[in-house]
Design a protein that fits this description.
381 residues; alpha/beta; three-stranded antiparallel β-sheet; 14% strand
């Protein structure tokens, strides 16, 4: 086929991102953000050791290495037991990493299985390659757990990729260790790549629930990471893929030559500072989540007639259900107009059931929650 005759990629609008493009910087209170409260520059720089500080002070704003700053890749690799720096490839955020990987792995005639509800690009990028996609539904009545039997039934001879996301966005669900091990074994048995979106990993509320990264456990496991969520540094736009398959990473690096080519030099050094001080950075994130989760526990206990939720076990999002007959999109619109509080209706995931996403990671959650409570009381009359 001549290049001029090849079909162009067709991909639908990203509903969640279009929603945030309209409202994220217009609504005073974001009660649905997926990230942790961003660090102030001066506070992050205060964590820098001598080497990182010297890198920052002497930084020149030229091109960077296409695979990522070597020192940064070394710190990222340390998050994945058994992996070396050359088994890490950095990107301009997790979104680019996902886009590149899926386009390298999939094409017409291939099949992918993707957990759902979930971030739209996890399944739509695969569809845009020409691959067939099966959405593997997680169910509230099961505590949003992964159903291994349903997964096995969804697999086909042409299945090339399984995409999972735990800790899960938007429900905050986790895999138990037995399910995780079975997932890794299934990958080995079937020779299927498993892309594990682990951007909320290390935000487990109970440290005993923290699972190994897929990249460390499965030969064909690929871990997706980013500075945006657990580390509270979304503005840096630094993400990565980690896996044992260096040939796959080489192919991804070649594809990346057609997207961003390389990362932002300041972002790489700031990411290096944060990862070298990860104990302090993560402690801040976990403390903020613990404080906000306690407020949400009390809030939902007071409003069992209006809301139901499966309490999240990790991460900075939850997926409660509105029990009123009012469509959730109408409820969230009225809340935004009257109180300036933004919630994310489950419609943006095309997911039924009057669910909505709440964010747990912002410092102004107490004020936003008070406004939501006032709205609930006023509209119940």
């Amino acid at each position: 086929m001549k290049q001029a005759d090849m079909p162009a990629m067709r991909i639908p609008d990203f509903k969640l991102e279009r929603y945030f493009a309209r409202w994220e910087f217009a609504a005073p209170y974001l009660l649905c953000s997926s990230d942790i409260e961003g660090w102030r520059m001066q506070d992050l720089l205060a964590l820098a050791g001598p080497d990182a500080r010297a890198r920052w002070d002497g930084l020149t704003l030229g091109y960077t290495e296409s695979t990522g700053l070597p020192a940064l890749r070394e710190e990222i690799a340390a998050l994945y037991p058994g992996l070396a720096p050359d088994q890490v490839l950095t990107f301009a955020g997790a979104e680019e990493a996902l886009f590149v990987l899926v386009n390298v792995l999939l094409g017409a005639g291939d099949h992918a299985v993707v957990t759902w509800p979930g971030y739209q690009s996890l399944h739509e990028v695969a569809r845009a390659t020409g691959a067939d996609v099966t959405l593997l539904r997680l169910r509230e009545e099961d505590g949003w757990a992964l159903d291994l039997d349903a997964l096995r039934r969804a697999l086909r001879p042409e299945t090339r990729l399984l995409v999972v996301n735990f800790p899960h966005n938007p429900t905050g669900a986790l895999l138990d260790r037995a399910t995780f091990d079975a997932l890794c074994e299934l990958s080995r048995e079937r020779g299927i790549h498993v892309l594990s979106d682990e951007v909320y990993r290390l935000l487990e509320y109970d440290a005993r629930d923290t699972l190994p990264p897929v990249a460390s456990q499965a030969p064909q496991g690929i871990s997706l990471g980013v500075m945006s969520k657990a580390f509270g540094l979304a503005g840096l736009r630094v993400g990565w893929l980690a896996c044992r398959d260096t040939d796959l990473l080489r192919r991804c690096a070649a594809y990346k030559d057609y997207t961003t080519i390389c990362n932002s030099a300041p972002s790489e050094v700031l990411s290096l500072i944060a990862l070298r001080a990860k104990a302090q950075v993560l402690a801040r994130s976990r403390a903020l989540l613990a404080e906000n989760l306690a407020l949400l526990d009390a809030f939902f206990a007071r409003h069992t007639d209006t809301f139901r939720w499966v309490r999240p076990r990790a991460g900075s999002v939850a997926f409660p259900k509105l029990l009123r007959e009012t469509p959730v999109a109408h409820f969230t619109e009225a809340l935004r107009e009257r109180e300036g509080v933004l919630l994310l209706p489950g419609d943006v995931y095309d997911f039924p059931g009057n669910h909505f996403r709440m964010g747990l990671g912002r410092s102004n959650l107490p004020e936003a929650l008070a406004r939501l409570e006032r709205f609930v009381a006023d509209t119940a009359r």
